[in-house]
Amino acid sequence: MAFIKEEREDIKSEETFRVKKEDPEEQIKMEFIKEECEDMKIEAFRVKHEDTKEKTAGEPRRKGPSSSSVCTECGFLQKIHTVSKHSHKTGNVSCFPCQQCGKSFNRFGDLNSHMRIHTGEKPYICHQCGLGFTLKVTLRRHMRIHAGEKPYTCPQCGMSFTLKETLRRHMRIHTGEKPYTCHQCGLGFTLKETLRRHMKIHTGEKPYTCKLCGKSFIRKSSLNNHFKIHSGEKPYTCSQCERSFTHKKKLDVHMRIHTGEKPFTCKLCGKNFTRQTSVKNHMRIHTGEKPYTCSQCGKSFTYKQHLDVHIRIHTGEKPFTCQQCGKSFTEQANLNVHMRLHTGESPFTCQQCGKCYNQKGSLKKHMKIHTGVIDMFSVSCD
Fold first, then answer.
1. What's the angle, vertex CA 192, arms to CA 188 and CA 196, rounded to 5?
2. Rounded to an integer, what distance in angstroms lies between the CA atom of residue 369 and that of residue 62?
3. Residues 6+ apart with CB under 8 A from 250
4. Which parts of this chain are annotated as the region Disordered (predicted)?
5. How far apart are CA 366 and CA 357, in angstroms?
6. What sign does the CA torsion over 137, 138, 139, 145 have?
7. How many Cβ atoms are within 10 Å of 256's Cβ, its own excluded?
8. pLDDT per residue as tens digits for the range 89-139
9. pLDDT less than 70: residues of the chain
């Protein structure tokens, strides 16, 4: 019964040392940040090109209090329209430094755009979703999401994307490229952000804490999923038995009960399981490992669920109660067996004599009569 219970138990959203599907919100944010960095470069080129056209036309740039800056190399007080020439003379192409992070720019306009990162200013707002952007060109690119426009297509699988950065990242699936490597465990990642999140596993950092129960998580998406436990929200429903789940992954695992799919196999005995964690737990039977020990009597167990049930012997807790007769039990499995007394259900049938039993253990004892193995605990056919 413990194995059945474990197979049916909702899968935990565990943090592992492998790359998992990333939080869509965080993905979009990271992509737009990268896109905006590119946009700044494009904007700088555009402004530079416009300046060249103005100079050619003989139109002087409008002067103002913000149109000059001091060169960090020589102290020369320079105007915006003289920056390129002066930078060429000094050999320095970045004369406008950011006072907050130290990054330098060769144009004052580029520095102004950069400063929005520190100030949080996002003057370009999407009228459909309210998301703000530092550059107008990034807003135009964002509007493709609402329009459903996906101009960037993978040449290998035909999948299309809204952003060029997303396509570039997607191509790593085909190439197998993982440029970001963890220096502690050697695991590789396709994204720098994923590596940064992975490092929290080594440091033990869990910055996202549930305000209701105090449980902490490495990722914000994990915290959002955890909130569904408190809210009772279960948006994913099984089409066959109508059981609902808080996460889609739990529903996917549950569906294997109906399909009979057991993709994970024990290499020692060949037994199959629906979940990878079930295989890991099963291996303890072969190794004899019993990592869960009762603090009151010292008895050890292979599974944590077994320890939890055992602890109720000491506490006297019997949380599972029969609604018909009021009898209580320490675990759900025992209540399920008990209910067969009321329903008359006897699902375990002897293939030789047809006698039925409400427990599988009773059938096994009965079978000893047919096999010739009889002991004082055997059940007769009478």
1. 90
2. 105
3. 10, 11, 236
4. 48-69
5. 9
6. positive
7. 16
8. 445 455 788 888 888 888 888 888 888 889 988 888 999 898 988 888 888
9. 1-94, 373-382
Residues in the chain: 382
d(CA 363, CA 379): 9
What's the farthest any 2 CA atoms get from each other in the chain?
Answer: 114
Give a three-class secondary structure readout of the chain.
CHHHHHHHCCCCCCCCCCCCCCCHHHHHHHHHHHHHHHHHHHHHHHHHHHHHHHHHHCCCCCCCCCCEEECCCCCCEEEHHHHHHHHHHHCCCCCEECCCCCCEECCHHHHHHHHHHHHCCCCEECCCCCCEECCHHHHHHHHHHHHCCCCEECCCCCCEECCHHHHHHHHHHHHCCCCEECCCCCCEECCHHHHHHHHHHHHCCCCEECCCCCCEECCHHHHHHHHHHHHCCCCEECCCCCCEECCHHHHHHHHHHHHCCCCEECCCCCCEECCHHHHHHHHHHHHCCCCEECCCCCCEECCHHHHHHHHHHHHCCCCEECCCCCCEECCHHHHHHHHHHHHCCCCEECCCCCCEECCHHHHHHHHHHHHCCCCCCCCCCC
Enumerate the β-bridge partners of residue 264.
273
Question: How much is the pLDDT for 11?
Answer: 32
Gap between the Cα atoms of 99 and 109, Å rounded: 15
The pLDDT score that the predictor gives to residue 155 is 93
Closest by CA position to 348, among listed 322, 335, 366, 333: 366
125/135 Cα distance (integer angstroms): 10
Per-residue b or e along 351-369, where b marks 16 or more CB atoms closer than 10 Å to that residue's CB: eeeeeebbeeebbebbbeb
pTM reported for the whole predicted model: 0.39
The rounded distance, in Å, linking the Cα atoms of 266 and 207 is 36
Tokens encoding 242: 């109508």
